[in-house]
Write a structure and sequence with these properties.
This protein is an alpha/beta fold. The chain contains 19 helices and ten strands. Strand 9 and strand 10 form a beta hairpin.
């Protein structure tokens, strides 16, 4: 056991070789990464969560446990962060009353940054390559969205029709109605997305090859060069990886050097973990399994997030087949290690359900990808396929944003990585408790996405309604007049121009004055910014209650309270659409049509509000290295849903323990704890009385 230095003893000395229990090498994705950028992006959330779980009183921790940072060298030649974490050792089930034993584990985190290891390709070369790559990316994106939006809806409907009644949340007929509405809405939404992406591809196909020659025109160069340079910087590394084998080798060399450094830090007995994002996952996977011997470098686990392993594959050589089978290579590497008595290399892959770059599980064939994607929701004997451990996660539930924020997904990405680094001696989370937390995260993120859509719908329509347009015009004019009046109070200044400056936003020819077309656009942008900001603010609070509050609300109370603001967004969107029908429809709709449209909109709003609660949540797909070793028929998993998990003894014990440990500060916190946490002053025990799960 390693002895940690005194708490708070930070130093700037070079880490000693062979003194660490685990080292994590993080590899960045596409684009130019600055020194320490990827290191900080992951070291900060990992260490913060590591400290949180290590100090959790529910596992028997106290103030002596947690993380102590020693070195945080962010500007040297080899940026590195080192720390010691102290935590209570996992209890022996056969000795539940044994004294708590503390484990100390030294951890180093370092980066592999290859963005400056080669000369980039020219703009013309990148843009010529970008056209076929763009269409491949669009096809993969549409395939992912088709699965997520349409196929999953049909699978859910079929599952509910076959499932035993006691595993269903709603009566079978009501489940059928909800599932049919989901299929219809999802199919329509997919058709809209399909049309948008295809149109974008058609428009960009002739434009991209012409961008570089157009820079020869002086005025175009002045306007567009900065934007185009940023675009080349973003995707240039991807083109280099595929089209320039020598430079691709330089990328892999950086990963190899970082792993060699990590092996020095852990010596012969420590564990090295390789963690890679996006294009870095393609670089790291190829380097680790095709060129290196993981056992010689003590690599025990590869973790990929938002991995472009399948999208990018390997470098392309003229005259060679562009085939790449990363799963087959990984399996063969582990098989060889087993024969030689070397350790197994585990592989965990995290992909967000809306991430177009990872676009689902990592497999060698499309059929295997389809099976393992389906296994993430409804596993069966028909879904068995070779591949790494797959985690389908919810980052934001918003397309185009999911790819870059894996580091912010504390429950589904950061904490599993933390637990791998802490090793088998760290206490596990009871399965029902873990299910509840994951399920609530999925509900929260899906609600965030739906509320964002509602916010944009409100913002697009509201300023165009007759009454609202007049009100917005009056508000703009009033604010401008007030500003002009304040300016005129200053001697020598004329404030009359303030009123005239907003004239283009208001149509003065209408009676009463209302927003002009430009005014409508500006007002919509401002309303959207306000509503999205409020939505994000609410989501941060609900997420904190799941992720960081040590005494969360009980599940049912949390579901009710967090549904209120989401319902307001969705209902407001339905009301705005109804008034738009009333205001814009020509000829004026009859009372009967207005009633019917109101009922339909209310039904749609009700479905959108409750859909996150009733939709399926993904589960972990275990790594599969052999189909022969797998059972011929996979037994159905134990029926698990929120009601069953809430009723479990594990969850009841955890909630009771957390409430007993709650120590509110202040009158408001005390009132909240009494009414929503079930806390009473007499229930607070001493630290030594904490129940350990």
């Amino acid at each position: 056991m390693l002895i940690a230095p005194a708490k708070g003893s930070e130093s700037a000395s070079r880490p000693d070789p062979g003194t660490f229990d685990a080292a994590l090498v993080v590899v960045h994705g596409m684009g130019n990464a600055f020194k320490s950028q990827i290191l900080l992006e992951w070291a900060e959330p990992l260490l913060e969560r590591m400290d949180w779980v290590a100090r959790d009183r529910i596992i028997g921790a106290n103030a002596t446990h947690g993380v102590t940072i020693h070195d945080s060298d962010l500007s040297g030649d080899s940026p590195i962060v080192t720390a010691t974490v102290r935590f209570p050792k996992r209890r022996d089930p056969d000795a539940p009353d044994a004294p708590v034993e503390t484990v100390e584990r030294k951890i180093a985190i370092l980066e592999a940054r290859w963005s400056e290891s080669f000369v980039p390709m020219t703009r013309a070369q990148v843009f010529r390559w970008a056209v076929p790559f763009m269409w491949r990316a669009i096809r993969r994106t549409l395939s992912l969205f088709w699965n997520t939006m349409v196929v999953l809806s049909w699978l859910t409907l079929g599952h509910h029709l076959r499932a035993p009644r006691n595993t269903l949340l709603l009566p079978r007929w009501l489940n059928l109605i909800v599932d049919l509405i989901r299929v219809i809405v999802s199919t329509i939404a997919f058709l809209v997305v399909w049309t948008f992406l295809v149109v974008v591809g058609v428009v960009l196909t002739p434009i991209l090859p012409l961008l570089s020659p157009l820079l020869l025109i002086p005025w175009f160069k002045n306007v567009a060069q900065g934007v185009l340079d940023q675009l080349v910087e973003s995707i240039g590394d991807v083109a280099t990886w595929k089209e320039r084998p020598v430079r691709a080798s330089a990328m892999r060399l950086v990963v190899r050097d970082a792993l060699t450094r990590a092996k020095e830090l852990v010596g012969d007995d420590g564990d090295v973990h390789l963690f890679a994002h996006s294009q870095g996952a393609a670089v790291a996977t190829f380097a680790l399994f095709e060129e290196l011997d993981p056992a010689e470098l003590n690599v025990r686990r590869l973790t990929t997030v938002g991995a472009a392993v399948v999208l990018l594959g390997r470098e392309k050589w003229q005259g060679r087949k562009d085939t790449y089978t990363p799963v087959k290579t990984w399996i063969e590497r582990n098989a060889a290690n087993k024969l030689e008595g070397k350790p197994h290399v585990a592989w965990s892959n995290h992909w967000a359900i809306w991430d177009p770059f990872s676009a689902g599980p990592i497999t060698d064939t499309k059929d295997a990808a389809r099976k393992r994607w389906q296994a993430a929701y409804f596993p069966s004997a028909a879904t068995l396929a070779l591949g790494p451990e797959e985690h389908a996660v919810h980052n934001t539930s918003q397309p185009w944003l999911d790819h870059g924020v894996y580091y912010a997904n504390t429950v589904q990405v950061v904490e599993p990585t933390v637990r791998h680094l802490l090793g088998d001696e760290f206490p596990p989370v009871p399965q029902p408790v873990e299910y509840i937390r994951n399920r609530l995260v999925v509900i929260d993120k899906k609600s965030l996405g739906l509320s964002t859509i509602a916010a944009f719908l409100i913002a697009a329509i509201l300023p165009g309604l007759s009454g609202a347009s007049v009100a917005f015009a009056w508000l703009i004019q009033t604010v401008a007049d007030a500003i002009g009046w304040v300016i005129s109070l200053v001697p020598g200044l004329d404030g009359s121009g303030a009123s005239a400056s907003v004239g283009f936003l208001i149509d003065q020819g209408s009676t009463p004055p209302r927003l002009s077309t430009i005014g409508w656009i500006v007002a919509s942008a401002l309303v959207a910014a306000l509503l999205v900001w409020l939505n994000q603010l609410m989501q941060k609070q609900t997420e904190r209650s799941i992720v960081w509050d040590r005494c969360p609300l009980d599940v049912r109370t949390w579901l009710v309270l967090t549904a209120i603001p989401r319902a307001l967004y969705v209902l407001a969107a339905a009301v705005v659409v109804w008034f738009a029908i009333l205001d814009w429809w020509e000829p004026q709709p009859s009372t009967g049509w207005l009633v019917v449209s109101g009922v339909v909109l209310a039904a749609i709003a009700g479905f959108v509000i409750v859909e996150p609660r009733f939709s399926p949540a993904p589960r972990i797909v275990p790594e599969q290295e052999s189909l022969e070793a797998a059972p011929r028929i996979v037994p159905p998993p134990e029926p698990m849903r929120l009601g069953i998990a809430i009723a479990s003894e594990e969850y009841r014990r955890e909630l009771a323990t957390r409430r007993a440990n709650l120590q509110p500060e202040g009158a408001w916190a005390t009132w909240w704890a009494k009414h929503f946490h079930g806390w009473t002053p007499d229930a607070t025990p001493a630290a030594s009385d904490t129940t350990v799960i």
